[in-house]
Automatic annotation (TrEMBL):
This is Sulfotransferase. Belongs to the sulfotransferase 1 family. Coiled coil: none annotated. The gene is LOC115024620. It is a single-pass type II membrane protein.
Length: 377
């Protein structure tokens, strides 16, 4: 009885294990036992196999592919609540393969980050340097780019004044990729004097922070003229362009070099859309005499830690403005290009005096609007 019981138990285990080869050998209903000796050796073999199975040896054998797919199918169905049978045999097979890949990927190590996450994403700028031309905007941007949490476009996009018809997607694609906690920035000084720019920036985001670098409007006008003269040597003299009538001393406000310096007029346009708290006014003069102090104000305004400090600057006597000290891994300090710090042409003093008289009331109004006296008078 014990032999028969062992054989029956063995057959049950073998049937569960899918061992069809041994089941065929044990089908006693179709076999004639030739001798007791054959039965004895058969039982020994079967009991030996059963012993190894009970001790876990069979678990180390590879399971049929069908069983593996079935287990993965069960996991997928539990995850998504979808039945592959409803999709048909062919579609179900494809879905299983795709979802199986997703399931395996979900168990991948956490350091397998996608390329998009590694390099961040492109966002609209949270802060824009909107002006003014020849005020020190390039210096400010270069100083800010030292900060590890600032990512800025190198060239001027001119989106809100020249290329607005290209659309916001085009504009965002110009931006550098940023990680969480970093600020995207750009600078285009002509935005400040562009009538449509405030409304367009507001339409993009009413929370945009705006930075205006201002400078004595008379000095700024001379610097503007100097830059144009370097590109067009045959340009008329400064006084010929500045006055409509040299005898009466009437200033020509249609000349852009003069018009840009009427800061109060342009600021009114921006304050129709943005509160004063959204704007920061940086002194172009202090950016030269105390770059670290002005950079501290800028970093506070942007909500950044004060990383850029006086240790980053030295004053270049030749150029007449501060440069960045030699960065690590660089052979020389970083100074602005040859176009910055050009010597100004000699302008008759009476011309400068008349121009200062013209700007005085506008300057005073600008001081009142911003709550800051820049000391240009």
């Amino acid at each position: 009885m014990w032999h028969v019981s062992c054989i029956v138990s063995s057959c049950s285990v073998l049937r569960l294990m899918g061992c069809s080869k041994w089941r065929a050998a044990l089908n006693f209903g179709h076999l004639r036992v030739q001798s007791k000796l054959s039965v004895f050796f058969t039982m020994i073999i079967l009991c030996t196999y059963l012993f190894y199975c009970l001790n876990g040896y069979c678990d180390s054998l590879p399971r049929p592919v069908y069983d593996q797919q079935s287990n993965f199918q069960n996991k997928i169905n539990l995850k998504d609540g979808a039945s592959a049978q409803q999709l048909g045999a062919q579609n179900a097979s494809q879905v299983v393969r795709e979802q199986l890949s997703d399931l395996l990927n979900s168990d991948a190590p956490s350091n397998n980050i996608s390329i998009a996450n590694t390099f961040g994403s492109k966002k609209f700028p949270q802060a824009i340097i909107i002006g003014v031309k020849k005020g020190g905007t390039r210096a400010l941007l270069e100083f800010l780019r030292i900060h590890p949490d600032v990512r800025a476009v190198g060239s001027e996009p001119h989106f809100f004044d020249r290329f607005y018809d290209k659309g916001l997607d085009w504009y965002r694609n110009l931006m550098p990729r940023t990680l969480e906690g970093q600020i995207t920035m750009e600078k285009t000084p002509s935005y400040f004097i562009t009538k449509e720019a405030p409304r367009r920036v507001f339409s993009m985001s009413r929370h945009t922070k705006l930075i205006v670098v201002v400078r004595d409007p008379v000095t700024r006008a001379v610097s503007d003229y100097t830059q144009t003269l370097s590109k067009s040597p045959g340009l008329p003299s400064f006084q010929n362009l500045a006055f409509r009538n040299a005898t009466t001393g009437l200033i020509d406000t249609s000349w852009s070099a003069v018009r840009i310096g009427i800061y109060a007029k342009h600021l009114e346009n921006w304050l129709r859309f943005f509160p004063l708290s959204r704007l920061l006014f940086v002194s172009g003069e202090r950016l030269v005499t105390d770059p670290a102090g002005e950079m501290g104000r800028v970093q506070d305004f942007l909500g950044l830690k004060r990383v850029v400090t006086d240790k980053h600057f030295y004053f270049n006597q030749t150029k007449g403005f501060p440069c960045l000290k030699k960065p690590e891994g660089s052979s020389r300090p970083r100074c602005l290009g040859k176009s910055k710090g050009r010597p100004h042409p000699q302008i008759p003093s009476e011309v400068l005096h008349r121009l200062r008289d013209f700007y005085r009331p506008f300057n005073l109004k600008f001081y009142q609007m911003t709550g800051h006296n820049f000391g240009w008078n």
